[in-house]
Amino acid sequence: MMKNTLKVVLLTSLLPFAAVAEQELTPWYVGGGLGINNYEPNCDLKTMKICGEDDPYAWDVFGGYLFNDYFGVELGYRDLGRAEWTDYSNKRNDVGARGMTLGLAAFMPIAEKWSLSAEAGAMNYLISNKKNYNTEYYSDSGIAPYVGVGVGYNFTENLKLQAKYRRYENLDDDKYNTLDMESNYWGLELSYRFGTEKPAAVVAPVAVAAVVAAPIDSDNDGVTDDKDMCPDTPSTHKVDAQGCTIYEDAPISSRMEGVYFDNDSAVLKPESYDRLEKGAKYLKENQHTTAVIEGHASLVGNADYNMNLSEQRAQAVVDALVNKYGIDASRLKAVGFGEDNPLMEGTSAEANKQNRRIDAVVSGAEKRPVLK
C-alpha cells in the first residue's frame, strides 16, 4: 500500500508586464505654520484699558519623527506675536512670547486623504514687555503647557496641509509679577514628509511551479489522515481502506484458575468474583470461544460425594457467568471431576484449599489483529 502520495503540478504562464510603484516614506518630516494669536486677558476683556495696535500674527517652524503612522514627537520654534494696551497707570505695554517647543502628536485617518490630529507639549518661552514706548523693557522665561487639535488634508503622500487650534497656559511673568496670560492660536500648517517613490519596476514573464503538498499520514498506517477513520493505529497492524485494524479469529486453548470454595460448599467465595469477572470479560471480547467449567474437590470424604460436590461447584460458576455477567449458556459446560485431578497430594489445610477449586478450559477462536 502506498504510504505517501505527492502530486506536483508544473504550471507555466506568462504574467503581463506591469509597472509597480512603491512608496518608501521615512519617519521624518518638517514644516511651518502661520496664524493668528490672541492673548488673554487682553484689553477687550478688561475695563479701563485702552487697546493699541496689536501685531497678532504668529508663526512657527518644526520637525518631527513618527514612531508609526499614528504617533510621533515634534520639536519646534514658535513666535506667538504681540499685543498692545495702555494700563491703569497710563503706560503703554507691548507684550509678546516666543520660544522652543517639544510635544507629542497623534494622527487618526478619517478618509482616504483626510485625518484628525491632537497634540500636547510644553513651550520654553521668553516673554517680553516693551513698556512705555521702549523706555522700560523687561523679560522673563518659563515653561508653558499647551494642547492642540487639527484637521489635515494630504495633497500627496509627502505633502500635508493642516488647520490648527492651540491653547497655551501660564505665560507668566514671575520675575516682576506683572503679566499672567494664556493664549489661543488659530492657523494653517504645511508639512513635508521625507521619502522618495521607487522607480517603476517591470515584472518579467515568470514560470510558476505550483506544488500540491503531500497528504499527511500521521499514524503511518498507509491511509492518509483525510480518509483515516481510526487514527493512531499501530504501524505494525494491517488496516482496511478506512485505516482501521483488521482482525482475525485465532485458535486458542487456555485455562482459567483461581476460583475456590469452602469445605463441603458449592458457594463461590467473595474473593473469587474478581477472577470470575476477568474471565467473563475475556469471553465477551472473544465471541468465538467456548468454556468447559471443571469442578474439583479435596481428598477428604467419600469419593462419590465429592464427585457430586464438584459438579455442583462447576454449575455454580456457570450460573454466575450466565446470570451475573450475561454469558450465553450455550457457550458453557459444567463438568465435575471429584478427587481425580488434585493439584496437591494429601489432606493438609493447604492441599485441601488448592484442591477445592474450579478450572475453566477455554477453546475456540480469539480475536487478534492481523500483523503486517
Number of domains: 2
By DSSP, the count of extended strands is 17
Uncertain stretches: 1-22, 44-48
State the major sheet: 8 strands, antiparallel, barrel
Shape annotation: rod-shaped
Mean pLDDT: 82
Protein name: OmpA family protein
Signal peptide: 1-21
Region (Disordered): 345-372
Family: Belongs to the outer membrane OOP (TC 1.B.6) superfamily. OmpA family.
Please provide a written account of the structure.
Belongs to the outer membrane OOP (TC 1.B.6) superfamily. OmpA family. It comes from Shewanella electrodiphila. InterPro entries: Bact_OuterMem_StrucFunc, OMP/PagP_B-barrel, OMP_bac, OmpA-like, OmpA-like_sf, OmpA-like_TM_dom, TSP_type-3_rpt. By secondary structure, the chain is mainly β. The protein has two domains: 23-197, Porin (Beta Barrel); 247-369, 2-Layer Sandwich (60s Ribosomal Protein L30, Chain: A), CATH 3.30.1330.60. The protein has helices spanning 273-285, 303-323, 349-355; strands at residues 7-10, 19-20, 23-40, 50-51, 57-68, 71-86, 92-109, 114-131, 136-154, 159-172, 180-197, 201-202, 209-212, 247-260, 289-295, 332-336, 357-369. Strands 3-5-6-7-8-9-10-11 form an eight-stranded antiparallel barrel. Strands 14-17-15-16 form a four-stranded mixed beta sheet. It starts with 6 loop residues before the first strand and ends with a strand.
